[in-house]
Amino acid sequence: MASSIQQLTSSKAPSIADLYSAVRARTLEIVAPLEIEDYVVQTAEFMSPPRWHLGHTSWFFETVLQKFKTGYQTYSDEFLFYFNSYYEGFGARIERPKRGTRSRPTVKETVAYREHIDAQMSRFIEQLSERDDADTILGIVRLGLEHEMQHQELLVYDIKHLLCDQFAAPVAPAPRSLETVSGMAEVEGGLFELGYSADRGGSPTPGSPTGQPGWGGAVREGSIKSGDKSPHSKNYDFAFDNEKPQHKVFLQDFQIDRAPVSNGDYLEFINAKGYRDFRWWHSAGWEKVTQEHWRAPLYWEQRDGEWMMRDFAGLHRVSDKLNEPVSHVSFLEASAYAKWAGKRLPTEAEWEKAARGSPQSNSKQAFPWGDEGPDESRGNLFENGLWSVAPVGAFPEGQSAYGCQQMIGDVWEWTTSDYTPYPGFKSDFDQYNDKWFVGQKVLRGGSFATPRVHIRSTYRNFFYPHERWMIGGFRCAKDA
Ligand SMILES: [Fe+2]
pTM of the predicted model, to two decimals? Predict the structure, then answer.
């Protein structure tokens, strides 16, 4: 898997054309160890068969070709139906829980579809500079690549659910913990500017949606610097609409854990009969505990009275993994733990301040360690190749000005914030983020399955409070 990953990490600002080839190649590298039978199986309603991800990410680019490439012939109506996910504007589609009930299109046909779309897209991108609407189209292509990176991460979750340690993941050796990280950081309150701002790169210039269906009518000229139409330009930056606009919030003084909650911490909650005591749980959480018999994070199992956990590398004693961040816990479990521990979950504004702010000055950095992008010594993201969390204390160089570690990478961290639009929100992409602004919670920071070029400190991921098949963990906060 090294080739395209290195391309992505060695160049801090690849062109859209380079990013396109690297991102598309990596999707295929992720699935390479699968056997043909693995591609079509759906093990739960919430996951998708790997073959579906391969086709769906290509479907996204086909909608771009349909909209903008003169004379483009649709590849197959059947594929359009099967590979659409939830975009009402693009017609009928198969329901998500039924994606695994069909063996067609076959894997071979899906790969041929991908190759067709890639050939069309590379010619299309090369010729973009001749067009007046190049900015708009480059913005949508970039969105398509960010979308594909989201699906790469989903593929890791779904392959874990499908095969777990039967999947021959190319697992790199894990780094050692270099220091003990304990206690809570004190963070001063006051006004904080929450969210993405163009002054950290990028130049969102508001455009006006045309109101036409499809990406073309939906995307503002927000992601690409105006006037720079070359597909080889390095002059671009990206943030999702849900991270904008930057706006002022007022924070009280607070404390936040310097490290994510570990398996060892969480085991204490289990051993203290945390899953048997309604006092710690939201009503929705207690319902899961009583009706679905939750007793531990997903992928934990008890053998002869001992807690074990399964991951890509095999079945492990939890007692051998005590110093690793806990993962595969839902918001409901994270909240119960926090209440039991006499703490609470942070708001997303508190999380972002602890990650990007500084007690010395009022300025913000792009990442906890500074303005440069992530690398191997600062956080555990997909390119580290661990296919797993790293021990607490493995990335002291990645710590924030407040001394918080592993905020980027390892596990997405639950916050107590509802996933709703920021004040002044304007949708850049119809149906992409804005249709999900109800009932979900925000998670921050990325996981070991998140590509480096995809993560930002302002990135707002979102899942339903009961979901735990994704790589979700948490750290706690406390009022000062
Ligand atoms: Fe999608």
Answer: 0.91
